[in-house]
Structures are given as structure tokens and as C-alpha cells.
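Q: Okay, next protein. This is Permease from bioreactor metagenome. I've checked the sequence twice, so it should be correct. Can you predict the 3D structure?
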Amino acid sequence: MGVLIAILGGLLIQKLKLEKYLQPDILVFTGKKQLLQKYQGKSIPLKARLKLWTKEMTEITKKIYPYVLLGVSLGALIHGLVPETLVSQSLASKSWWNVPLAVLLGVPLYANSVSVIPIIEALVNKGVPMGSALAFMTATVTLSIPEAMMLKKVLKWQLLAIFFGITTVAIILIGYLFNLPL
């Protein structure tokens, strides 16, 4: 279901022609046409391609690295300050608002999906429903403030808001789906 929502969201963004909301410098790159002109229509040597790819990768990395470092640092700081018991006690009920709350609690945190697995295991063992735990985990990975800071480097606010909106709705729907009784 998550893949289906991602595909539909991507198609919607493409249909609405939202490329104008990408940061302008992210679209500046040497394309195939420019390379073919340089090599007068001949096959582009692999060495030249590798040199170009390395140059562009280095430039992009230099542009976004400070934001990644700042985002991860901020996430680690918040992660260390928010007690696990606050999260588990808030999410242990089986109320309708449990999944949206799980998403809201996950937003200020930042973690990769592998490092948050032990936290999710502890939450489920403390009575948090699986859908709510998954919503919390997914929000920490995709909707976190540090993630937004990193994405802001390549997306303008409008596209960032659309991305967060689609992702939030998808996380909540999937959380409710996993919380349904079998």
C-alpha cells in the first residue's frame, strides 16, 4: 500500500508539473546533449563520464553536507532529550487519535529506519499497537525536522509542503490499516 501511495503521489506531482518548486541550482547539470556536442556525436568515453559524475557528485555533496550534518546533530539532540516512556505512555491507548499522535510525536525526532527498530520493539512490548508504532517509526524517518532541513536544500517550500502532506496522509492510512483487528 505504501508503494502504491508513493507512486500515486509521484504521478500527481508530475501531472501538476511541480518541477518549478525544485531549487534552481539542483537542475543545473551537464546533460547528454552537451556531452554529445563536446564529443561531436561520438561515443562518450567512460573515463569522461566518470570524471563528470564525480565532479557533479562532489558539488552536490558540498552543497547539502552542512544541512545533513546539522539535521543529524539536531535529531540526535532531540532524540536524547525525549524520554521513551513519554512516547510509550502516550501511544498505548487504542483511541482513534493514536495514529496521528504517533506521527506528531515522531516529527521532532530523527533516526534511520534500522536504528529505530529497537525503540519500536520496546513500544510494542509496552502495549503500543503495531500500526501506531509503525506510524511513529515512519514519521521519525520521513517527516522529521532534520529531514525537512535536508530536503529544503533541494525543494522549495511549496513542494516540501506537498511532499510532507502526501507522506503524512500515507503514514496515517497505513497506521490505521495495521491497527485494524484481524
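A: Here is a summary of the prediction. Residues 29 and 56 are 7 Å apart (CA to CA). The mean pLDDT is 80.
Q: Noted. On to the next one.
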